[in-house]
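subagent[fold] <- orchestrator: predict structure for attached chain, return C-alpha cells only, no commentary.
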Amino acid sequence: MIPRRLLAGLGGCRHASSSTSASAHYDLVVIGGGSGGLACSKEAASFGKKVAVLDYVQPSSQGSTWGLGGTCVNVGCIPKKLMHQAALAGTLIKKSSKLGWNVPDDVSHDWSTLCGNVNNYIRSLNWGYRVQLKDKAIDYINAYGTFSDAHTVRAVDKRQNERRITADHFVVAVGGRPQYPDIDGTELGITSDDIFTLQSPPGKTLVVGASYVALECAGFLTGLGYDTSVMVRSICLRGFDQSISSLVAAHMEHEGTRFLRNSSPTKLQRHGENEILVTWQAVADNSSVVEHTEVFNTVLFATGRTASTKSLGLESIGVQADTHTGKLIGSAECPEQTSVPHISAIGDVLQGCPELTPVAIRSGKLLARRLFAGSSEQMNYDLVPTTVFTPLEYGCVGLSEEDAIQRHGESDIEVFHANYRPLEYAITDIDHSSCYTKLVCVKENKQHRIVGFHFVGPNAGEVTQGFAVSMSAGITYEQLSSCVGIHPTCAEEIVKLHITKRSGEDASVSGC
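subagent[fold] -> orchestrator:
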C-alpha cells in the first residue's frame, strides 16, 4: 500500500476511467489534473494525439480532499474569490444605510450556507472537466503515478490496482501543497487546503504567514465577521512592491485585522474544546525577544508551498530539481523542458515560473503545440499581471519600484504616482486612505517606458488586465497620459497621473 505521505498533491476525482487498460502506450501522459495539465492535454488531443491524464489527491492532514481541476479550482483562486466577494458584500451591506437602505443592526452571516454554495459550484466545475476530457477522448486515470523508468509510469489507484503506462512524452504538472513550520503541534492547524470546507465557523482565527494567501484568507475572514490576526515574521507580500504592500496591510488593519509583527510561532497546544493555545516569540523594538501566548479557535498556516515532486521517482531517471523547493529545473533554451528531453514541466512545479493559473494554462497549450504541431512559440514569463484579492485589492504588472531601481539605477527611474478616492466610497465612508496607483518608468529616448504598473483599489484585477495588454506592447507614459479617461472610474486615475516622486509634490487626492 502506498503511504499517504507519498501521494503528494495531484488534484483529482474519485473514480478511474474504465476506458484505460492494465497496460497502455500514449503519445502524451500528463501527470497532474490542474489547470495547466488539463489545458496541455486538451491541446495535444486536438492534434489527434493519444493522451492520458493521471490525477490523484492526497488528503490534507485534516482529511480534506477534492476533485479534478487542481489547486486553483478547488482550494485556491475560485473559492478564495467567492469568499472575498462575500466579505465585500457584507461590508457594503453594513455601509449602505447612507445609500438609503434600511439595514438592521443585527446583520449576520451564515458560514455553512456560504461554504455549501461555494463547494456546490466547485463540484459542478469538477464534473465539467471530466466531461471535457471524455469529449476529447482523453483517458482520465485516477491513480498515483511514479516513474519506473524514463518512458514508463507505474500508476496505482485507491484500491491498489496497478497498471503500467508508457509514453513518448510526459508533462509533470503536479503543482504544490502548503508547507508547515517546524514547530510542535502543527497537526492542530489547518492550511488553505482546509479553510474552504470547514464544517464549523472558524471563530477566532490566527493566520500564520504574510504571503498573498495569508492576507487574502485573513481579509475575507475579517470581512465575514471573525476575529482575525495575522502573524508576520518579517515583511508582508514578499516579492511585491513594498510601498504598496504596506498600504494593503494598513487598510486591513483599519478594517479590523490585527497584525502581530516580527513574530513567529513556537508551539501549538490543545486548550479545552475547540481551542488552541498558541505560543509565539516577538522581537521588540530594542531587539529583545518576548514570549506571548493566546488562545484561538483556528490556526491557519500560510507559510509557503512546496512542489509535489519528491515521490514521483524523477530523481532516479535523471530529472533535476531544486533540493529546497522540489521544483523542476528547465533548460535555458526551453524553460519547460527538464534535464530529460521528453519530460517537461509546467505550472507551479517549474522553477522560475510565476505561480499563477493563467501562466500554467498558456504554457501548457504552447508546450503541446511545440510537441505536436510544429510550433516554435515559447512562453513569455515577463510582464505577467496578477492581483492580490485582499479587502482592498492590489493589481500589478512588471517590476516593483525596488526591483526597477536595482535593475536600471535610481537616476534612470521615474515614478508617477497619486492617491485617489473612489466615487463609490464617497457616501458610504469606506476607508480610501490606501487607494493609490503608480507607474514605474525607465527613461529612454526622452520618453518614459513603463516597466511597472501598480494599482490599489476596488476591482483591481479588472483594471490591471487592460493595462497589462498595453504594457506588453511597450507603452510609454507619454502614450498612456495622452488617453482620455472614463469618468467617474478608478481606472481613469492612471491616465491622469502627472506627479513624480522625485518632485516631492503632494500626491494626495485632487479634483479634475
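orchestrator: received. Logging for downstream: The radius of gyration is 24 Å. The longest helix spans residues 111-135.
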